[in-house]
Amino acid sequence: GAVVSQHPSWVICKSGTSVKIECRSLDFQATTMFWYRQFPKQSLMLMATSNEGSKATYEQGVEKDKFLINHASLTLSTLTVTSAHPEDSSFYICSASGDLSSYEQYFGPGTRLTVT
Amino acid sequence: RKEVEQDPGPFNVPEGATVAFNCTYSNSASQSFFWYRQDCRKEPKLLMSVYSSGNEDGRFTAQLNRASQYISLLIRDSKLSDSATYLCVPTRQLTFGSGTQLTVLP
Q: How confident is the model at residue A56 (pLDDT cuts 50, 70, 90)?
């Protein structure tokens, strides 16, 4: 299957700072990338859909000014958590899809963010 | 109503057992599905695509029952490594449920 990388795999930051997470599709061009968040023992929650070269589409309740998404190329999307708070601590997972007919997704390994 | 609903489990089965769990869906227009597995603290991995009445891949069999609007996943000869949470999602959908937790016991 297709490979998606995510960096960093874990990060600890202080309240008020910003953290950037990178998501790369390594062996295919990802027309669309998705960003999810998952709290312990809960399901994946879609945060936003990102298409290369255009603005991301955010799900209801997700602050676009707090979670900045950039999808500058067909292989790279970034999520920046700005002014992080402890409640932003979570598992952030990106996925990439090259098939718009089905949204078959390949997930990155995730980034575990802890805000102290 | 949620797009898909799954019995959260946990299903605890002995190694070698056959186990099946269902995923019911609300949108009768859904024609195809994905099954993903997610290990604890890991990302989901695509297990199987189901585009018609069913699909079989080794020990795993998925069946789609359109009349009753559910999709099932059958695991034969379960292994310890099958322990995970199994998620079903209609294609073209991005909403994941909580999945079904399976633990295979030695």
A: very high
B 31-60 → A contacts, CB under 8 A: 32, 34, 41-46, 49
CA distance A2 to chain B (A): 10
Token reading at B70? 């559910």
Output the 3-class SS for A8-74. CCEEEECCCCCEEEEEEECCCCCCEEEEEEECCCCCCEEEEEEECCCCCEECCCCCCCCEEEEEEEC
Mean pLDDT of A8-37: 93
Residue A107: which of B45, B93, B99 has the nearest Cβ?
Answer: B45
Is B98 in Cβ contact with A104 (below 8 Å)? no
pLDDT, tens digit, for every residue of B68-78? 999 999 999 99
**Closest Cα of chain B to A91: distance in Å?**
8
**pLDDT above 90 coverage of chain A, percent:** 69
